[in-house]
Amino acid sequence: MQIQPFSVNDGDGIRTTIFLAGCPLHCKWCANPEGFDAKPKTAFYEKLCVGCGLCTEVCPQKIGIDLHNLQARAKCINCGNCADICPKHAKKRMVEYKTVEEVIQEIKKHSLFLRQSGGGVTFSGGEATMQHEFLNVLSEKLYDMGFHLALETCGYFDFDTIKPILERMDFIFMDLKHIDTTQHKYYTGVGNETILKNMIRLQEINADIVIRIPVIEGVNADIAQIAESAKFVQQHLPKAKMELLPYHRFGFGKYEALDLPTPSNEFTTPSEEKMALLKNIIIEQGIALADFR
Fold first, then answer.
1. Could you tell me the residue ranges of all domains in the chain?
2. In whole angstroms, what is the distance from residue 114 CA to residue 33 CA?
3. Is 182 strand, coil or helix?
4. Domain spanning 2-37+96-284: which CATH class is it, in words?
5. Which fold has domain 42-94?
6. pTM above the 0.85 mark?
């Protein structure tokens, strides 16, 4: 997991975002590769390294400075000791284990900002519902403490298992990567049947719903696909809003830092004119737009 305080893009007000690692999808454009699975990870940002060697002194595997060395990366047990001591943050814990109580104590440090700004806590990922037992306990405790709660989800989960968690949420953001199940499977590794069924069942939950579409040229940035998506939302979740998120490459430095192959250059960002056109299509369907970015 990772904890990001003072977030302003994951719901109303100032928020603490809890990123829970592990995801049932493997989107070809993903900006958070550290969340593919729930294993601890250590990133190495070589350009920040000053070669002080402190990391080598605390490494139980006696690995050198350069984590991009294939042998060093293979030997690394991702204990995070090097990240803790690095003065320039060239090495960083990307995923680490924490208990429910540790997370709550971290959130308490920022509770004044969260409450006074009308913010709260957002659960994200990876896919937060993959760790549903942990999420169930954590969300119950934070709910009892009176925090505003939000969930960002890909929608690929067993609804009845996750329903108690959903019922504690004030906001639910659910992604719709592609309305066509064949294309969805090609780009994410799974079909969208479960996601669409869960989306329909969100009408059982008393929370504000926002359906998010990451808009990517060559994938789903076309009039027909967006219109069909909007029609589905209008039919099954008429009170929900939709948010179109233009594709970005902000997280791609993580791939290099974790020695992973970066996504294809075929994925590009739609123009502002294209985004405006697609937003108008949603409005024409009678759906309100949300904008948290």
1. 2-37+96-284, 42-94
2. 28
3. helix
4. alpha beta
5. Alpha-Beta Plaits (3.30.70)
6. yes
- DSSP state string for 236-287: H-TT-EEEEEE---GGGHHHHHTT-PPPPTT-BPPPHHHHHHHHHHHHHTT-
Strands 91-95 and 41-44: antiparallel
How is residue 29 annotated by DSSP?
A: T
pLDDT of residue 78: 96
Helices 132-144 + 159-166 axis angle, to 10: 20
* pLDDT single digits (tens) 184-212: 999 999 999 999 999 999 999 999 999 99
Residue 293's pLDDT is 75
**Contact between 46 and 149 (Cβ < 8 Å):** no
Can you name the residues that pair with 213 across neighbouring β-strands?
A: 244
Among 76, 79, 148, 90, smallest CA distance to 119 is for 148
From the list 218, 212, 216, the residue with the least C-alpha distance to 282 is: 212
Res 136: pLDDT: 98
Which has the closest alpha carbon to 270: 192, 213, 194, 197?
213
